[in-house]
Amino acid sequence: TQLLEQSPQFLSIQEGENLTVYCNSSSVFSSLQWYRQEPGEGPVLLVTVVTGGEVKKLKRLTFQFGDARKDSSLHITAAQPGDTGLYLCAGEGAGSYQLTFGKGTKLSVIP
Amino acid sequence: NAGVTQTPKFRVLKTGQSMTLLCAQDMNHEYMYWYRQDPGMGLRLIHYSVGEGTTAKGEVPDGYNVSRLKKQNFLLGLESAAPSQTSVYFCASTRPVPYEQYFGPGTRLTVT
User: Fold this and answer.
1) Do residue B50 and residue A45 have CB atoms under 8 angstroms apart?
2) DSSP β-bridge partners for residue A10
3) What tens digit of pLDDT does each residue of B10-49 get?
4) Which of A9, A74, B39, B83 has the fewest CB atoms below 10 angstroms from its CB?
5) Whole-angstrom Cα distance, residue A100 to residue B50?
6) Measured between CA atoms, how close is A92 to chain B, in angstroms?
7) Which residues pair with B57 in a beta bridge?
C-alpha cells in the first residue's frame, strides 16, 4: 500500500510570510499532483509534476518533485489570505487507476 | 461546460434508510471515482470505474454499491445507511495518464 505523508498538518501564518509544505513517501510515483480545497467545495487541481527534479511555478507557488519521485514540496512566497485552504498532494502509482492522497495541510493566512 | 456535478448537495437520513447519490460529468472522461472525506482521515476511495459498465472496489467499499450504466454518470448507493456513513462524499472524473482529477462540489450526508 502506498502512503503519502504531509507535513505540517496545520499551519497558521501572517500575510506576507513564506511557507513550505511537504509530501513524503517511501514509494515511487509516476506523477504527483497538488490540489487546493476551500471550505464547502471539492479539491481543485493546482499542478502535476512528472519528472524527477521537476520544478513548476504558478505565480507565487513553487512545486518541486523529488529526484527519486518519492516526495514533493510546495512553497508559497508572500502568502495572502486568498491562499487559505486545505492543500492535498496525490500520487499516481505505476499501473494504477487510482491516486493516493495525503491527509492534507490546512493553511490559514491571517491578514 | 458544467464539469462534474453532484446531487443532492445535502441529505439527512435515518439509520436503515437507503439513498442514491448521482454524479454526472460532461468532459467525456473514462474514469470516475467516489470518495468520502472525514476529518483527520483525508480522502478515501470508495469505488471507481474505468469505463461504462465496469466498477471496482477502493479502500473503503463496505456498505456502498455503485453503477456506471452511462459513461457520463456514476451512481453511489447506500442500501442501509449507518451513522458511520456520515461524511462528505465527492465524485471525481479523469482522463487517463496523468490522472488529473476533476472533483464535484460534494454531498454532505448525515445519518442519524
Assistant:
1) no
2) A106
3) 999 999 999 999 999 999 999 999 999 998 888 999 999 9
4) B39
5) 16
6) 7
7) B47
Q: DSSP letters of B89-112?
A: EEEEEE-SSS---EE---EEEEE-
On the CB side of B62, how many CA atoms lie within 13 Å of its CA? 2
What is the predicted pLDDT for the residue at B97?
Answer: 67
Neighbours of A52 (CB within 10 A): 12
Measured in degrees and rounded to the nearest 5, phi and psi for residue B67 equal -150, 145
Q: Which residue in A31, A40, A101 is closest to B43 by CB distance?
A: A101
pLDDT value of residue B92: 97
Cα separations in angstroms, B8 against B12, B53, B106: 11, 23, 9
Q: Span A78-107, mean pLDDT? A: 92
Which of A40, A48, A97 is opposite residue B100, by nearest beta carbon? A48
**Cell numbers that stand for A104 in this block:** 492534507
Is B100 in contact with A33 (Cβ distance < 8 A)?
yes
Which chain A residues have a beta carbon less than 8 Å from that of B41? 103
